Amino acid sequence: MLEAQWEEGKFVCVGLDSEYEKIPEYIRTTPAFNIDDSISFFNGEIVVATEDIACAYKPNIAFYEAHGVVGLAAMKDTISRIHDLAPKVPVILDAKRADIGNTNKGYIKMAFEYLKVDAITVHPYLGQEALQPFLNMPDKGIIVLCRTSNPGAGEFQDLMIEDLRLDGRGPLYQYVAAQVADKWNKNGNCAVVVGATYPEELQKVRDIIGDMPILIPGIGAQGGDVEKTVKAGKDSRGQGMIINSSRGIIFASNGPDFAEAARRETIKLNDLINRYR
User: What is the reported pTM?
Assistant: First the structure.
């Protein structure tokens, strides 16, 4: 699914971090709407406006779980709407799951059977053995946290360790990248997460993993530079990037033109990406 989008020059992942309080007031105060109606309507209009431009959609589960059952209902409705309107555009559940193997089966059932997403983010701390239930899903994307976009990411991710693949010694995030590329990706269903806020580290990871996909958050509100990100993140074909923007797209306007503004910002970002490819 991603390959088809990249061939059409589409690299923007629209992050549906649909924080209820930031949804335009006129939607939240519509008399017939409760919370899940408001979130579903907002997301649906964003999808209608961007479905021909986006390479992927990425709802972050935290913004839906915050509202309990109604929030999860809004997420399920949103994902169904994406599949109806844009069946060739993958949906990535940003859930950052990982636990012991048996527990992961519950996460898998939730993500792939109940919500029916195409991919999920996971964290590597429990190791390959625990994550094997995810890795055994050859038709689903398993996107492993590697070098995250937050300011404090280096607390653990930059710790130096010994490994021959890292010229004898290198930071933990590079070891994670090497493990995913060399050992975890037997089914060709893995990708890694590297923040746009760290372009030098992004280049290091690209050098390690070859042409595997990279999910790249941090563009827009977090301050990632598009030119540096594309030059560091593109693969040998000038592709391989899932460049996410959330707030910079979906909250580009807080008025009735929010969907048109989201479309405008998505086109603007995609044009920039293609300019630097």
Answer: 0.96
